[in-house]
Design brief:
The chain has 2 helices and 9 strands; from the N terminus they run E-E-E-H-E-E-H-E-E-E-E. A 6-stranded antiparallel β-sheet has the order 2-8-7-6-4-5. Strands 3-1-9 form a 3-stranded antiparallel β-sheet, with no helix packed on it.
Length: 155
């Protein structure tokens, strides 16, 4: 995969893309529905960050294969195993497809998965971005026309 890092942006854990979304449980019909998330066929690039004089590269993009194009979304694996469904948003690991809840969720299982396994990249289920937990960088699709979102079985 060829990726181009433009103006990179880093944020401390807890101040990334989940910040400001609130800590309330998800509402009906959003990420609790099984489906799939689209992975951009061209892969990811570091999002521009006008607050940085020099771009930061993501050390993990070159080693990632952007396929499979669809990753299954079933809910946070650890929350479901514990009989819970109170996550706020879901993240899907780009290396193994693990479904985990975001940092704003009570369990923060996506972060825990990344820390435990060394799988640094996860895609947001409901929006067109990904996050590198290791480099703390916000990632966007390499092609601006690509979207990443939850879809039903036939989507």
């Amino acid at each position: 995969m060829t990726t181009t890092s433009e103006n990179g942006g880093a944020a401390p854990r807890g101040a990334g893309p989940d910040t400001g979304r609130g800590a309330s449980a998800h509402t009906s019909g959003h990420a609790n529905q099984p489906g799939s998330v689209l992975v951009p066929p061209e892969g990811w690039r570091v999002a521009p960050d006008g607050g940085r004089a020099h771009p930061l590269p993501c050390r993990h993009l070159d080693g990632e294969d952007p396929s499979p194009v669809r990753l299954a979304v079933t809910g946070c694996a650890e929350c479901l195993a514990a009989g819970r469904d109170d996550w706020v948003h879901l993240r899907v690991c780009l290396r193994c497809g693990h479904n985990g809840c975001c940092d704003s969720s009570p369990g923060a299982h996506a972060y825990r998965h990344a820390s435990r396994t060394g799988h640094p990249l996860a895609v947001a289920v409901e929006e067109s971005w990904a996050w590198c937990y290791a480099d703390e960088l916000f990632l966007i699709p390499a092609s601006p026309a690509t979207t990443t979102k939850l879809g039903g079985e036939g989507s």
